[in-house]
Amino acid sequence: QVHLVASGGGVVQPGGSLRLSCAASGFSLSTYGMHWVRQAPGKGLEWVAFMRYDGSHKWHADSVKGRFTISRDNSKNTLYLQMNNLRTEDTAEYYCATMGSGQQLDYWGQGTLVTVSS
Amino acid sequence: QTVVTQEPSFSVSPGGTVTLTCALTSGSVSTNYLPSWYQQAPGQAPRTLIYSTNTRSSGVPDRFSGSILDNKAALTITGAQADDEADYYCLLYMGSGVWVFGGGTKVTVL
């Protein structure tokens, strides 16, 4: 059974850094492309980043490009999101999700909350 | 910049039918965008309903269906139930490793 657990969220000051983790169980992460998606409080979903199953390619939304980096360690069955130079507008619940055969987001984790505030 | 638009809200009676749409501010939505749909109940993670325009995800009731209508992606709920009350989001794959969500539609069943 596919299970994703996101962690690493917390409160950080503007300009600070955080690294989010997404631990997978019940399946091998190495067979799935993986996404990060975020949702600001009371707002809609925003796609953040995607990495191919083998780590060969990665893409980031323009809003985070140059500040956030998606990565993965298939040996640890874990996906990461390194977030640097955080801004107040990065405050959101962050979800990880697998990519399905039709370019859809398939299985979702439960989310981890990042709050950027002074 | 590409913007994907959805109706902000819809109200439907129990047992009724409602069609939500997903449009581009510039251009038409086709199957090439591989539209997918997600349901999000309050306080919960999203759940995948439809992918590749009209394929239901595992375990999704057949009262949910997807299509292309008038150059927009569409999600139809036929025979709405109380637990269909949620926010619904479409997602389009723009190519070159870029995905864009619509702004979401809040569906009320009353």
Provide key terms for this protein.
heterodimer, A: 118 residues, mainly beta, seven-stranded mixed sheet, 11 strands, globular, B: 110 residues, four-stranded antiparallel sheet, 0% helix
Distance between the termini of chain A: 40 Å
- Helix and strand pattern of chain A: EEEEEEEEEEE
Task: Give the strand content of chain A.
Answer: over 45%
Number of helices of chain A: 0
Main beta sheet of chain B: 7 strands, mixed
Beta-strand segment tally of chain A: 11
Estimate the strand proportion of chain B.
Answer: over 45%
Task: Give the total of beta strands of chain B.
Answer: 11
What is the CA-CA span between the terminal residues of chain B? 37 Å
> Biggest interface in this structure?
A-B, 25 and 26 residues
Helical fraction of chain B: under 10%
Please summarize the sheet with the most strands of chain A.
7 strands, mixed
State the low-pLDDT regions of chain A, or none: none
| Global mean pLDDT of chain A | 96
CA gyration radius of chain A, whole angstroms: 13 Å
Structural class of chain A: mainly beta
Structural class of chain B: mainly beta
- This entry's quaternary arrangement is heterodimer
What low-confidence regions of chain B span 5 or more consecutive residues with pLDDT below 50?
Answer: none
State the helicity of chain A in percent bands.
under 10%
Protein described:
The complex is a heterodimer of chains A (118) and B (110). Chain A is mainly beta. Chain A contains no helices and 11 strands. Chain A has strands at 3-7, 10-12, 18-25, 34-39, 45-51, 58-60, 68-73, 78-83, 92-99, 105-108, 112-116. In chain A, strand 7 (68-73) and strand 8 form a beta hairpin. The mean pLDDT of chain A is 96. Chain B starts with a strand and ends with a strand. Chain B has strands spanning 4-6, 9-12, 17-24, 36-40, 47-51, 55-56, 64-69, 72-78, 86-95, 98-101, 105-109. Chain B is globular and about 40 Å long. With 110 residues, chain B is mainly beta. In chain B, strands 2, 4, 5, 6, 9, 10 and 11 form a 7-stranded mixed β-sheet that branches. A 4-stranded antiparallel β-sheet of chain B has the order 1-3-8-7, with no helix packed on it.
